[in-house]
Amino acid sequence: VDAVIDEVEEFLTGARGHVDVNRMLATVLFTDIVSSTERAAAVGDERWSELLDAHDDIARRQISRYQGRLVKATGDGILATFDGPARAIQAATAIRDATRRLGIEIRAGLHTGEIQRHGDDVIGLGVNIAARVQAQANPGEVLVSRTVKDLVVGSRMSFTDRRVHRLKGVDD
What we know:
There is one protein chain. The protein has helices at residues 2-13, 36-43, 45-65, 85-100, 125-136, 146-151; strands spanning 23-33, 69-73, 77-82, 106-118, 121-123, 142-144. By secondary structure, it is α+β, with helices and mostly antiparallel strands.
């Protein structure tokens, strides 16, 4: 179908349009273990390594369960993408609840926007905004941007208004 559309487009306009296949709309999830340095110092390197492995395993399972893609582990958190914001919120909540049973508290931030694939990684303002939203979250909180909230209207998810926050490096 794409080949036929390309031919029609070229016939009508005289040129084929450029499609940037590396850009996409996605919901970006960042998590971070709260007070990870202090926790590592308290339990020791060996136990901390076991807890990190358990955290990463939980995150991988929940991201897969909610049809996301684990982009990378960030040392004391994760970066993942989803094609739908509701599933991203559900994954973040499930990760938070499961890691609590390990005695680990996380904070999570989500934003939906255009992102750019960069090898196996993702980059772009949408990724940066998700990271900034996560940085504003309190321990145990899944904080979402207004964009995410607006996209899940009708999903029966409830939110608490955290008012407007200025995000470093983001004008709007």
